[in-house]
Amino acid sequence: MSKRRNRLRNRKKTIISFVPVFIATLIIGFLFLLTFLSLINMGNNKIIHNVYINGISVSSLSTSEAKEKLNQEFEKTLSQEISITFDDYSTSLLPAEINFSYDIPKSLENAYSIGRTGNIFSNNFKILISTFKKNMISAEINYDEDKLENIIENISVEIPNLVIEPSYYISNDELIVTKGTNGNRLNKEKTKDMLISAIMNNEKSITLPVETVSAQDVDIEKIYSEVHCEPQNASVTKDPYSISVEKQGVDFAISIDEVKNLLSQPDITEVTIPLKYTDAEITVGDLGEDIFGYKISSFPTKYDATNTNRATNLTLACEKINGTILQPGEVFSFNKVVGERTTKNGFKDAIIYVDGELDYGIGGGICQVSSTLYNAVLFANLDIVERKNHSMTVNYVPIGQDATVSYGSVDFKFKNSRNYPIKIVATTNSGILTISIYGVKEEKEYNVTLEVETIEKVDFDVIYEYSSKIPVGQEFTKQTGKYGYKCSTYKIVSYGDQEISRTLLSTDTYKPQKAIIQKHR
Fold first, then answer.
1. Where is average pLDDT lowest: 58-62, 287-291, 453-457, 468-472?
2. Parallel, antiparallel, or unpaired for β 205-207 and 82-86?
3. How far apart are the first and last CA of the chain?
4. What is the pTM of this model?
5. What is the mean pLDDT of residues 83-105?
6. What DSSP string runs through 181-204?
7. Which distant-in-sequence residues (6+ apart) come within 8 Å of 47 by Cβ?
8. Rounded distance, CA 413 to CA 334, Å?
9. With contact defined as beta carbons under 8 Å apart, do 250 and 275 qualify?
10. Residue 401 scores a pLDDT above 60
11. d(CA 251, CA 245)
12. Is the C-alpha dihedral spanning 359, 361, 367, 368 positive or negative?
């Protein structure tokens, strides 16, 4: 029995004495492996095994070889046009439109540094691990955020069945308040994330994240606070020089409770509120000062004076704008000043664009006024608050320099960003529509120029309509074709010969207008 116990004890001693030897052998083997890896990688100027940048293998390549490979692969991604759709609406985006790029040098630096930045043990350990596990590197991305936001903003007002928020405008002695309409709204932040993800993952299309939302209720107290004011006399001080233009006092002629009662009726979509005015005792004219003697900017556009209805719309809109005075920091809203384009307000039927074809609509031509004003505002170096381009090019201003408006959904707004009040003078005469901005000459007056970069030019389709009324062998152009464009417009501000700033105003997309040719059947 004691002999058996001794044998077991001796066996345990043997096992225990073997363990240190086994561990030492493993350590020596591991050190030998690290030394071997160190020797085979000594002088190696290539990226180690199993390294990927954005899923693209750069394993065992020199940095120049990897750069060439990445450029080729990323070029495929960046040349992929992304289709953007929602219901019947569709548009597209090329990554080049937002200056999208990958930081290839930084990515290659990170890839090359694997197994090279630590001591010999940590470096060789990383090399050893890479034999079994991939090293995944994500290339940093760069893009022009302003351009992307401009594109998304354009999309947000083009989607069908947009929600229409409550609005109001003043016409003569009445305040017209229009209730909102439920509809669609684009999730802009989610759209941005989806577009960037689509570019990075080489996706060919996205469906816009559009939500159905309810229009806000009319906030009559807020409207009252914006409309109501006490009369204010005009005044001018010399040192320092400042001007205060007179203001009429404005108030509701009925109580707010009466207005709320009208708005509460579900079958009423528009409420008319009578206004009462109180004149200021002292006007600018009474001051004996040439307050608005300096022409800051002026911009003319041509129109067909023989087109009576369209000319009437232009003249009516100009009359409503003419003489508007804006204090420093005050925002001008085209829709609030001009009001709703209805026959009741004097507007006529004239040609408008509908689904790529010419048609008739009340207030046709109004956008020429907003576009002319937009250019006068740009050259006056005032701040743009809200502006949207047309769906197709127009013939009265260059591409990238138009501003469309649609009452209740698309407005044109700008702010008087000067130190003193400004006055808008708008006239129509013998086929020339001119809008000028007047004010006080400041110590530094800057020069503004515009520069348009054409990103893409899209050809138009030619459609043939056949009729037996057309003489044999003859054809007539019912509608002239127009090219589509994608362009970016920049505002360059200079003082003397020195360029002060170059700012992206907008990135605009114009759809082509099909040509319609009538021929004999």
1. 287-291
2. parallel
3. 121
4. 0.69
5. 91
6. B-EEEE-HHHHHHHHHHHHHTT-S
7. 58, 59, 60, 61, 62, 63, 66, 108, 111, 112, 114
8. 6
9. yes
10. yes
11. 19
12. positive
